[in-house]
Structure formats: structure tokens, C-alpha cells
Amino acid sequence: MALKLGATALNKIYLGSTPINKAYLGAGILFSGSVSPSALFAGGQEGLLLEAFDIDTLFQVSDGTIPVTAATDPVGYFGDKSGNGNHATQATGAARPTYQVTPDRITVDKVDDRLSVTVPTGGFTGTMVLATDHGTASYGVTIPAGAYDIGGRGRWYFPGNAIVGQLIRDGALSEGDAAATEAYFVANGATASYGAVTNFNSFWRNWSELTTFPLIDTSAGTNFSIAWFGCTGLTRFPLLDTSAGTNLSNAWRNCTNLTSFPLLDTSVGTNFDRAWQDCSSLTSFPLLDTSAGTSFGSTWAGCTNLTSFPLIDTSGGTSFGSAWQNCSSLTSFPLINTSAGTDFGSAWQNCSSLTIFPLLDTSAGTSFISAWRDCTGLTSFPLLDTSSGTNFSFTWFSCFSLTSFPANAFDNISGGDFTNAFTNTALNQASIDNILVSLVASGIAAGTRVFDQSGGSAPSVTGTDAIDTLRSRGWTVTVTGGY
Amino acid sequence: MRLTIACPDALRDDANNLAMILGYGPSDAKTYDTPNWQDGDGNLYAVASLPVSDAFTTAAQSSLQRPSWDTDSHVNMVGANRAQAALVFSLTPVAAMPDKLTACVGDDALATLAAMGLTHGIGED
To answer: Which of A218, A236, A318, B5 lies at a CB distance of 3.0 to 4.6 Å from B103, suitable for a disulfide?
Structure first.
């Protein structure tokens, strides 16, 4: 039944500013909002409107022949209902998605299936409403002219397993129109909310066309790995519910234009590997709850514009390999709890703006390979506990400004690989003496026994005596001055 | 049933010729596209997954005939026959082989690829 104002059928009615999907007169439906959003293109706006529930728009072959008639039929042509002729097609047989029913939808295998649209000159800057079997949402988008994949970026990444409907309009939709379009797709079989999804792995990976991301329900999500990887068009991120998320690895990696990040609930997250790697526009980072985190490998690596870092809880962290590598704008580092850390390889490599380093607890660390390499601003170094350390190769390599190093630093270490550990440094004589004497005190006389220093001062007699002792224990020692 | 096929990089040209014979036409020369899946030994594969009929699997294992549309000998029949000779068809997932065109039955293409020992890495898009 159509609700009319005079002779004109109403497409929408509102309660205040909220569009109404259905209105009843008694038990009968007086108005149904399930009116095709094709009217959103009535002013000649560019874009496309795809409706899997209109089987008349579906064909098996990309030239629009052989109608789709039954479940499991391949879909090589998905007709655009916007009036713009931006049909989605697939010429290669194996790459065609399949039609399914109850509800009507186009299922993608997330391996090689994709339908492509040729976006016209000028591209689309506006709104995309994507309705899937997993959820429905509206996004801000900027899509350049050329081929554009419907049904997953690069064939693989898609927030669901099937398309029920998709609208892209050049020119942003109002909130009301976007909500009405979502409701229309939901009324025709799409799942409304992402609230039941637990695994968001790769859902929006490499969707670089997204300029805004909606506040969808992600409260059931446990796996967010790679979910927004490469969303390079996003500058902000909404306060999504990630309170159940345990795996956040690679979640926002390579979101290179995020300038801020919200205080998400990450309190049960255990895996933060590469979560914000290469978020190179972030200048600060919120005090997230990372207290359950165990793995922080490369988590903030390449966040080249972070100038400060919060005192987050990393007390459960065991892996810090490359965690802050190339955070070259950090001018200070907080006294976080790293007492459980075993891998510190490259953890602060190339943090070139640090001039001092805090007295962190590194007592459980076994690998310090390249840990402070290229920290060219450090002039001194604290007396860290590296007693579990077995590998110190390249640890302070090219710390050009490092002049002062404490005594007794290596008295109780567990291994003697110092290959290029102090190459290209500026150690003063007391410091190189401190180091050599401490290595003697370690008593290491087995396994790898290599020590390298260049730059700075040559050791004094105290140091050369220590070298003699080390060589007698099988060490290969290279120092400034050539002793 | 759904068939998921792993094609070693070196067999792609031959396999795409076979795809043109078994499929719809010249556009099926792009069936095995970028080889960005890999096995545990680092061997690269292009993959395809599609629903097929019994007739398809029968045709895939029968003597190959030049398609009627191929009036200008676009299809390399020698290559297609090489691909067919390398075809391994299995009703359950088996490990992808670097010298075989491994085709496995399974409803979930991603799960089948995982069971074939193939992964699609982060930096390989």
C-alpha cells in the first residue's frame, strides 16, 4: 500500500529527523519504507545501486546475457539501478560470485571472486552503503576513476560473505537518507548489525577509499587482526567497542593518515603485534589498557611522528621486538613495565630523537639485537639489567652520540655475542674501559665471544688489560685504536 | 560442489589455456592471476575457486578439444594438455604441489586453501 499526499506517493516519512520504516493503521501496513533508493539519483547524481534481491538485474555472463534464475547460478553481471549504467561485471568464469536465496544475495568466495565497476572520470566522493550477510553500514568514500571491485578489495577482503545491496553515490547522503537506505537493504534480507560477528579478520583491509568509518557494533568481536590494515584514507577512527577483542594484530597497521586514535577498550587484548605499525601521522597515543598484552612485536614501529608515548601497562609483555622501531620523533620514553620481556630485538632502533633512556626492567631479556641501534641522540645509557641477555649484536650500533656508558653493565650476562655492538659510537675512555672490564667480570669463556667497538676513544691500560684477559678466554676483540 | 585449485606460478600460462577450454571463452585466460599464495616452502601459487558440476570434472579429465569460439587458434592446446597432465583432483584437501595443478573439493574455499597448506601473506597484495 502506498501512502499518498494528494496524488503523490510518499517515499519517506519522518518522526522528527528519524526516517520511519513502517507505519501501521491497526494491524495493516499503511506505509513501508522499503522503497528503492533509486530516487537518491533522481537529480542526476553519479553512482550505482546494486540490489541482489532484484533478480531481473542479475545475469550469468558479463555481457548481460543468460539470466540468473536459481540458487548457485554464477553472476557475471550485476545491473546498476541508479540509472547511471555503472554495472558490475566479471568476464572470467571462475571469478564470478554465485547467487543464493533466502535471503537473495551474491556470495563471494573471498579467494578469486569479484565484480568490477568502471568508475567514470572524476570518481565518486560521497557515501557508500554496503549491506551484507554480516552487517550493514554507511561509509564516507573517495573512489578514483577506473576499475573498482564490488565484493571485496583485491578479491579477498570484504565485511561479510555476501552482498545483499550496495549503493555508492557521488555526493554525500544525509544521515537520514543513509539510514533509510540501510533500512531498505535490511528489509530486503541484509543483516542490520555487525553485533554478532566475532571474527573481523581482514574485513576492511586495504579499503583505502574509506574516508570515514561508522560507529558499528563490534562488541562481540574477538579477532580484529588486519581488520583496518591499509585504510589509508581514514584520518579519524570511531570509538568502537573492542572490549572483547583478544587479537588486535595488524588491526590499524598502515593507516598512514590517522591523526588521532580513540581510547578504545583493549583491556582483554593479548596480541598487539603490528597493531599500529606505520601509523605515521599519529603524534600522540592514548593511554589504552594493554594490561593483558603479551605480544607487542612491531606494535608502534614506523609511527614516525609520535613525539610522546603514554605509560601504558605492558607488564605481561614478553615480546617487544621492533615495538618502537623508527619512532624517530619520540623525545622521551616512559618507565613502562617490561619486566617479563624476553625479546627486545630492534625495540627502539632508530628512535633518533631520544636523548636519554629510562631505567626499564629488562632483566628477563635474552635478545637485545639492534635494540638501540641508530639511536643517534643518546649521549648516555642507564645501568639496565641485561643479565639474561645472550645476544647483543648491533645493540648500540651507530649511536653516534653515545659517550657515556655505565660500569658493571655486563657483569652477569649470559652470552658473549657483541658483534658490532658498539661500532660507530662516541664512547669516552672510561666507558669503553667500563665495558671491557665488565665483560671480564662476566666470566664468559664459551660460546660466541665477539666484541666490536669503533669511534670514540681507545681504551686505557685498564681496558687493554681486560682485552688481554678476554682474548685468553677465546674472545675476538676489536676496539678503537686497534689494540 | 565447489572446487578450489592451486596453480604453481610456472604452470599459470598452461593452466589458463586449460581454463579457456573448460570455461566460457578468452576471458578465462585470467583465471589464474597473481601468484600470491604460498606453501610452507615458499613456492608461489595463483588460486581459483568456483562451483562446478560433475560434467565439468568429467570434461577436465577427458580428451581436450579446441573450443568452437577459438577460430584463430588463440588457445595453446599443447600448453592446455600439459596443464591437464599436471592436474591432481581430490575429493578432500591435499597439500598443494609445486609441479601440479592441485584441485580439491570443499565448500569453504578459504578453509580448503588452508588445508592445502597455502597462506596469503600480509604484504602480498
So the answer is: B5
